[in-house]
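Obj.: predict assembly geometry.
Materials: sequence records (below).
Method: joint structure prediction, all chains together.
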Amino acid sequence: MANHSEHAGHAEHVVSGGLYWLIWAVLIIGTILTAWIATVDLGIFNTVVALLIATCKASIVVLFFMHVKYTSEKMTKAILISAVFWLFLLLFLSLADYSTRYAG
Amino acid sequence: MSDRAGVGETPLATEHEARPELRHHFADVVQQRNAASLGMWVFLATEIMFFGGMFCGYLIYRRAYFNEFAAGSRSLNLWAGTINTAVLICSSLTVAMSVRASQLGKRKQLIGLLLATLFFGVVFLGIKGYEWHDEYVHHHVPTFYFNAQDLIHDNPNLRLDPQPTKIFYSLYFALTGVHAAHMLVGIGIFTVILFMAWKGKFTPEYHTPVEIAGLYWHFVDIVWIYLFPLLYLIDRRPGA
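Observations (raw structure tokens):
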């Protein structure tokens, strides 16, 4: 363990500045796109598209800016996935309850 | 026996001696760095739960009072919201670049990027404050002086009950307020990081505080990435 990390560990992954600028450009384009597409009538899909764009933006922030793509610590991904899972549990079960409450 | 133990301990002991920032309870700097970053991720998981509760309340009420939420959403300043989203994305770029500068040991670049981050953070709060003032002037703050008659006037196509619009504004001010509080904390943290960078505390071997603070800042950015469409873009379709 100590041996392994002594040789492998000290060199952290350094992301190139160009990639960071590319991510920035994608995020800005996503922001403009979501603001514009909200004014186009897509019916119920307006909300779906808005949340889809937001999730894409959040994902690339997590993967690249927050280094989840490059981390050597596997527990980071476990914690991230479980946090998102719990959030979905909270939202999904609550909304399932409220949207069927007066159905019968 | 004691000889063997001595041989085994030598590399660790020298690493601890060579690196004063390496705490004695960690085997090496990589383990220390990973542990610190993992701790921040656990904290961020609790933050997801914290904001998740309010998002859940928002979704339930939005479903129940969609027209009122749509009218309230349209009364928000779309330009200010879009520009603020872009400002936060710029600040996330400068944070990511400042982590990179600290990894490469570029002190001057690091200080410049940290100053830019603080600048973007303050600009965000300034624009947010301008919006809040605007909403205060229009009596949209849910207090005794709350008045949503202008929403009925502005949205002749929607059948509006003025009272539930208060729920939209309550959630709007709670969510943006808590987010702004996180921004204030972030600005405080980055002021400390800036001071540490100015003192020359960070090296390519040790820059964990920059990285940990960066994780927090990016998280606050992600919260806004969701708040922007959920609050500002509920129903902006023309004629709807």
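Conclusions so far: Chain B is about 80% helix and 0% strand.
To do: check interface contacts against the pulldown list.
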